[in-house]
Write a structure and sequence with these properties.
The chain has an 8-stranded antiparallel β-sheet with strand order 13-12-9-10-11-14-19-18. A 5-stranded parallel β-sheet has the order 3-2-1-4-5. The protein has 486 residues and is of the alpha+beta class. The protein is 38% helix and 23% strand. It folds into 4 domains: 3-102, Rossmann fold (3-Layer(aba) Sandwich); 131-200, ATP-grasp fold, A domain (Dna Ligase, domain 1); 206-443, D-amino Acid Aminotransferase, Chain A, domain 1, CATH 3.30.470; 448-486. The longest helix is centred in the last third of the chain and has 38 residues, at 448-485. The protein starts with a strand and ends with a helix. A hairpin with a 5-residue loop joins strand 9 (206-214) and strand 10 (220-232). Residues 1-445 form the Biotin carboxylation domain. Keywords: ATP-binding, Biotin, Ligase, Magnesium, Metal-binding, Nucleotide-binding.
């Protein structure tokens, strides 16, 4: 490839551009009117305005992106994540236009994009599934009968889509009808598909995902796991690699199951297989994300691999350059997503201007961000400002370094999730590794705990300063006394 267009924006566009520069491949950015002055636009070799601020009029308009690619003689398109990254129709159109999608085939996207078809596909490969049914249910009586057989609590889940939409927890039979109607209504409005299925609710669930890579020559490897259990509204806010609870044996079994999922859909490129891990360390297949993940930096930090470069090489029909036995696991990496959100108000998005934006700098810190000081956070897109990543020789060092990095990260003009990230890093449950996807529900249901933690830290700092000042005064008095005696 000689030229690649990035069909995305923000920090992932900057991330892809960095690798393209390293590989001496020309980059093309597409941007909306809201992103006219964004850093990724100026960092690309060429850039094209594709429409107004709303993504439905710019980043999601396939015709505009394809026209830009054809006008500039682009060889490939990197879709990043979100927007068109898992759109099978877009993948098929690029194939017809003779433009290489840096991602899997449309067939793989379709198969894994529907949770029911994904379950059916992986069943033949002995991949563990959550107890339940792998077909759509529309009749309430049938759904209730299934739930009774499985045993409450159960989850009603939308077949299409993700992000917690169209998902309802049902703890008793009398709530089944209402929750099923709500799940179907939300699924219909969010995905245009009201198909749902019923499965057992896993207690003390941890969200563990396996990064896999496959080429067009039959090779599939896994690049270890990421722990993504700290979530708000079923969306991740903190990730780490590796997990605090996986043993080498369990890691291998989950990795091999993830590779089996990739083989089930004839996968090619970077993909992530998501599992639920219960309190007894049993794991169950959830879904496959057929794209690069937001949290891919923590995997890069512990393996030393450039996942974007690997994507490009696989899309260029090259064989994977490493085998499973070559994959390293070096140290521990932690990632805090820095959102423009008010954690004290149920993580509601906050808009404003980055009056001050100074990033921490250290050898162990990596920051993938989208903004510069003085810029406004647009209301049209995801409110993530940056991904703050730290690496350490072990988990404890990675956590401690994250706390230092958060303290050194200066952002003013709007609220962010930095304080929440620090609260998690210092929490006993997180530091011990004894937590699950209900962390926020259990420990942050009352946001005042953040105020309490900040006040305790303030008092501790004041006490330290008082002690230091008293030591200085005492030393000075001793020096004065010594001079008088002389």
């Amino acid at each position: 490839m000689k030229k690649v267009l990035i069909a995305n924006r923000g920090e992932i566009a900057r991330r892809v551009i960095r690798t393209l520069k390293k590989m001496n491949i020309a980059s093309v950015a597409v941007y909306s009117e809201a992103d006219r002055n964004a850093p990724f636009v100026h960092e690309a070799d060429e850039s094209v305005l594709i429409g107004p601020a709303p993504s439905a009029e710019s980043y999601l308009v396939q015709d505009k992106i394809i026209d830009a690619a054809k006008d500039l003689n682009v060889d490939g398109i990197h879709p990043g994540y979100g927007f068109l990254s898992e759109n099978a129709e877009f993948a098929e159109r690029l194939k017809k236009e003779g433009i290489t999608l840096i991602g899997p085939s449309a067939e793989a996207m379709q198969l894994m994009g529907d949770k029911l078809s994904a379950k059916q596909a992986v069943k033949a490969y002995d991949v563990p599934l959550v107890p339940g049914i792998d077909k759509a249910v529309v009749d309430f009586d049938e759904a209730k009968e299934i739930a009774v057989q499985i045993g409450f609590p159960v989850l009603i889940k939308a077949s299409a889509g993700g992000g917690g939409k169209g998902m309802r927890l049902v703890e008793k039979a009398e709530d089944m009808k209402e929750q099923m109607e709500l799940a179907q209504s939300e699924a219909r409005s969010s995905f245009g598909n009201d198909a749902v299925f019923v499965e057992k609710f896993v207690t003390k669930p941890r969200h563990i995902e396996i990064q896999i890579f496959a080429d067009n020559h039959g090779n599939v490897i896994y690049l270890h796991e990421r722990e993504c259990s700290i979530q708000r509204r079923h969306q991740k806010v903190i990730e780490e690699a590796p997990s605090a609870v996986l043993t080498p044996e369990l890691r291998q079994r989950m990795g091999e199951s993830a590779c089996a999922v990739a083989k089930a859909c004839n996968y090619s490129g970077a993909g992530t297989v998501e599992f639920l891990l219960d309190g007894d360390l049993n794991f169950y297949f959830l879904e496959m994300n057929t794209r690069l993940q937001v949290e891919h930096p923590v995997t890069e930090e512990i393996t030393g691999l450039d996942l974007v470069e690997m994507q490009i090489r696989v899309a260029n029909n090259e064989m994977l350059s490493i085998k499973q036995e070559d994959v390293q696991l070096n140290g521990h990496a932690m990632e805090v997503r820095v959102y423009a959100e008010d954690a004290l108000s149920n993580f509601t998005p906050d808009i404003g201007t980055l009056n001050r934006y100074q990033k921490p700098v250290a050898d162990y810190i990596r920051i993938d961000d989208a903004f510069e000081e003085g810029m406004e956070i647009p209301i049209y897109y995801d409110p993530m400002i940056a991904k703050l990543v730290t690496w350490g020789e072990n988990r404890e060092e990675s956590i401690d370094r994250m706390i230092k990095a958060i303290d050194a990260y200066e952002i003013s003009g709007l609220r962010t999730t930095l304080d929440f990230g620090k609260y998690v890093m210092k929490h006993e449950a997180f530091r011990s590794g004894d937590f699950d996807t209900n962390f926020i529900k259990h420990y942050f249901s009352d946001p005042n705990v953040l105020h309490t933690a900040q006040e305790e830290e303030k008092r501790a700092l004041e006490a330290s300063l008082d002690t230091l000042w008293n030591d200085v005064i005492e030393k000075k008095n001793n020096e004065v006394a010594s001079e008088l005696i002389k």
